[in-house]
Write a structure and sequence with these properties.
There is one protein chain. By secondary structure, this protein is α+β, with helices and mostly antiparallel strands. It has a single domain, classed as Sandwich (Jelly Rolls), CATH 2.60.120. The protein is 15% helix and 31% strand. The strands form four sheets. Strands 1-19-16-21-14-13 form a six-stranded antiparallel sheet. A hairpin with a 2-residue loop joins strand 17 and strand 18. It is globular and about 70 Å long. The two termini are 22 Å apart. The structure holds 2,5-dihydroxybenzoic acid (GTQ). The site of 2,5-dihydroxybenzoic acid (GTQ) has 9 residues, from strand 3 and strand 10. InterPro entries: Cupin_2 (IPR013096), GDO-like (IPR047183), RmlC-like_jellyroll (IPR014710), RmlC_Cupin_sf (IPR011051). It comes from Acinetobacter albensis. GO terms for molecular function: dioxygenase activity.
């Protein structure tokens, strides 16, 4: 493609005349906003090590009481987007949240969608619209847009979880805001589907009545399915998707969630795709290659990869490795922007 004229090629007087009228010439910026053949991502390939985050998070617990933090979170910020912008990718926000014994993070609801993936600790819970969801290691808990949620902790040890939100996109759209509320009474309504057991109340249940019929995805169920799949399909990569059990669609509207099992000594090569991705180790250890960058990942480490990167996930250990994945595919598919390419 032709090299286009630069800003410096125009007389300063002309530029000043334009700017004074809130006008800019397109051609000096055309190749930046429409680069040839693939985007130029700000998202950098990056790893956050849990053993570096954890002491700093525990220190945050000493430095800032929960009442002064509301949510005690260290944000996993990608320097490619500017740390202050608190983005892992252009769509995905990641945070590590700490709740100490007997602490309570008050009820609120906001427009961005969130999920929690429990990293460490027992006996914390998130109450979502009156439904108390227990938080055990590896569980995925949804707190979708507009639903009231608060976090509590009945145990004795600190609990840490990974927050994944679509905050960067919702904020960019000038659609991000929060409403504070009071402690939610926990509802013990029998008239709710029990999807983990495959059961719904027969006479009162209207399918697809709610956008989010399932709020907690227990890790033990997900792990067992991965193990069973690995036995059944001895060749193919083993991956499961977190879906809305009534529609079979992605469990949230903007970010997609899945889990992958790497068998001992298995390598999975992902096809480059238009959506950025996040990887978090639930159990085991793996090596990740993102284009030319190489990282070792241990339990609770988190990585992000930009769009169209070539990603290899390698398990060199003799134990299976379980990886939680977040990606931007749902929003890109809805907008007609999603594509997958062959590896080169
Ligand atoms: O737990 O509700 O990491 O509102 C960022 C914003 C967590 C939460 C975050 C939030 C929350």
């Amino acid at each position: 493609m032709e090299q286009l004229a630069r800003l410096e090629d125009l007389p300063p007087r002309y530029l000043a005349d334009l700017n004074q009228r809130n006008l800019v010439p397109l051609w000096p910026s055309l190749r930046d906003v429409l680069p040839p053949l693939k985007p130029i991502p700000k998202t950098q390939a990056l790893v956050w090590k849990f053993n570096e985050i954890k002491p700093l998070l525990i220190e945050a617990g000493e430095l800032t009481p929960i009442e002064k933090a509301e949510r005690r979170v260290l944000v996993l910020a990608n320097p490619g987007h500017g740390l202050e912008n608190m983005r892992a990718t252009s769509v995905i926000y990641l945070g590590m949240q700490l709740l100490l014994a007997k602490e309570w993070a008050p009820a609120h609801r906001h427009t961005p969608n969130a999920v929690r993936l429990i990293v460490e600790g027992e006996k914390a819970y998130t109450t979502v619209e009156g439904q108390k969801c227990e938080m055990s290691h590896g569980d995925l808990i949804l707190t979708p847009s507009g639903l009231w949620h608060e976090h509590g902790h009945d145990g004795d040890e600190p609990v840490i979880w990974l927050d994944v939100l679509d905050l960067p996109l919702v904020y960019y759209m000038e659609a991000s805001y929060v409403e504070g509320g009071d402690c939610q009474p926990v509802q013990r309504i029998a008239n709710k589907p029990r999807y983990a057991a495959g059961l719904v109340p027969k006479h009162h249940h209207i399918r697809a009545d709610q956008d989010y019929p399932m709020l907690r995805y227990p890790w033990q169920e997900a792990k067992q399915l991965l193990i069973d799949l690995a036995h059944e399909h001895t060749q193919a990569p083993v991956q499961i998707a977190y879906v809305n059990p009534e529609t079979g669609e992605d469990c949230q509207k903007i970010i997609g969630y899945s889990a992958l099992m790497l068998r001992p000594n298995e390598t999975v090569q992902l096809q480059p795709r238009s959506a950025a991705m996040v990887f978090h180790i639930i159990e085991g250890q793996a090596h990740i290659k993102i284009d030319e960058k190489n990282y070792d990942l241990e339990k609770a480490d988190t990585a992000c990869a930009p769009c169209f990167s070539q990603i290899d996930l390698i398990n060199t250990s003799s134990e299976p490795c379980f990886i939680f994945i977040a990606d931007e595919a749902p929003i890109q598919k809805k907008l007609g922007l999603y594509s997958v390419r062959n590896r080169i």
